Structure formats: C-alpha cells, structure tokens
Amino acid sequence: MVAKDFHQLITQMLLVSKENLSKQNKIIINKFQTMLEDNYDLIRQANDIDIKNNNGFPLDKKIINNIFKNVSLEKVSLGEITELKKDNEKKLIYGKQIMGIGNVLVINDGNTYIIIEMILRNIIAGNPCIFINKGYMFGTNELIIKLLNDLLTSFNLANLIQLFVADNYDIIYKNFANIDLIIGIVKREEQNQILKNSLCPVLLSGMENFEIYLDDDLFPELILNSLKINSQIILYVKEYLDYACEQILVADLDEAIARINYEGSHYSTAIFTKTKENAAKFISEVKSKQVVVNTSPLIERLLDIKEEDLVIEKTIIYPSK
Length: 321
Prior knowledge:
2 domains, 13 strands, Aldehyde Dehydrogenase, Chain A, domain 1, five-stranded parallel sheet, alpha/beta
C-alpha cells in the first residue's frame, strides 16, 4: 500500500542499504521485467479499472519492453574505479568512480511509462527514489511498485522505490535536508513552482510540454486531436484560428522562432507550413530536442533524462606502484 505519511517514506528511504546494489542492479532489472511479464494480466486488470474511472490510458506492452531495451543500452559502472591515465613522472594514477547522486524525488503526472523508466534509471544509478503525483493511474502504478518492492525485499532493498500521492507538492518543500535531487516531469506551471520553492538541486524534463507553430492553416483535425491528447501544447499562430484554446499571435516565422526559443520547453516543437524554405529555417533555428514538420509534436515522447543526470563522477587520484 502507498504510505499516507510522507515523513515515514523519507525515513524508510534513509534506512535503505545500498551496499550491494551496484552488483545486483542488472539482475534486479532483469527479474523486474520478468515479473511484469508474468503478472501482465493482473496489471492489465488494474489498468482497465483506471481507464473505466477516467483515470488512465491503455498500456502498450511493446512500449514497456522498449523502455527496458533502451535502458539496457546505458553503460554505467556504478561504484567501480576506472583508470583514466597514469602519470609516471609524478607516480600517480588518475581514475574515476561513478556514484549515485543520493535520495531522489520524482514529481510526475502519474504516467506509468515515465515511472517505469525512472525506476530503472534510478536502480542503475543506485538512488533510492520516491515518486509523488496526484493519483493519476493510481491503481496501475501502485500495483507495479508493489510487485517491484516484493522483488526488492528479496534483495534486502525494501523501500528503495516508493510511491506517494498528494493533493499538492507543498509537503516536499519541508524535507529538503533528506532529498538530494528533485526531478520535475510535469506541466510548465508546476515546474515553475518547483524551481521557485526548491532549496535543493532540480532537474526538469521537457516531456509533456510541446509547441506548435502554424505558418499555414494545415491539418486542423490532426491539430485538434493533438490538443485533446495533451493540453500542454502551446499554439503559436500568425492569425487567430477557431481551435477553442489559448493561442499566441506572432507576426511571422522569425517572431515564432524567437518566442519559442525564449519561452518554450526546448523539448518537442512542430511547424505546419506549405513552404519548404520556412520548414528548413524552422528546423535550423528552433532550439528543441525534437523538431517535426506537418505532424504532431507528440509523435515521439522520449524521456530526456539519462544516466549521467542521476550519478556523480568522482575523480580518484592514487599513487602508482
């Protein structure tokens, strides 16, 4: 069950022993994937209940498998000292050691795919982690984390990964002393509140925040469907269009690019245009990790947080023999 007391979760997180995690993390991830596959019918039942209650979306088993596949490509040697160079004159060896960043708090909207990926990445990084959200996909997420904790308990790592549901995030700002990193994968307004109130390091993801610039009025049905799927799309238009949503009027392509670069998420941006030259200019000048032309910015939703964001690299210097 999900704990009702956030302080209780913090205490449990501090008691987690990570001594053998670096040696077991790959084994744990493999067993976690097998456990999800073995219990997928049960997870689907919980997912169906969330959908029936208008509190979730249908999970795709292929997407979950792809998350495991993509994470498996990351190469982090947690805890091991790697030799970088040897200085014979000074008789010193320089190396590096990868360590977990510490206790991590992930604030997200409850998207199960994000939770699964962040679970895997924090296990690889050796970080105890608490997920906090407002209860979206609660049944699905609670079951997955319960299955995971059953597995972690067998490795003496109970409470490494936990889930907390809250009406707001004010409670986290009273526990900074025990949190080493806050990750915000939420709407812009909530990200701004995290930055405003946080006293510890913050890492933000652009995921779930998108921009569309309408250079021409093309594919209105596609745009309307995108807006229905994600209300965090910011629409930039040269002239007002009847899309029943907030729109930002711009004079031309140059103003659209300037505004998106200044106030956008820098995550995923789309342009709808009939002009190849305008498309090329947009692609070249917009500061976004993903730029698409005449299609929805939601076409690829990749989490832009990697292993190097979740670990610390220490420089190690020791005498050579």
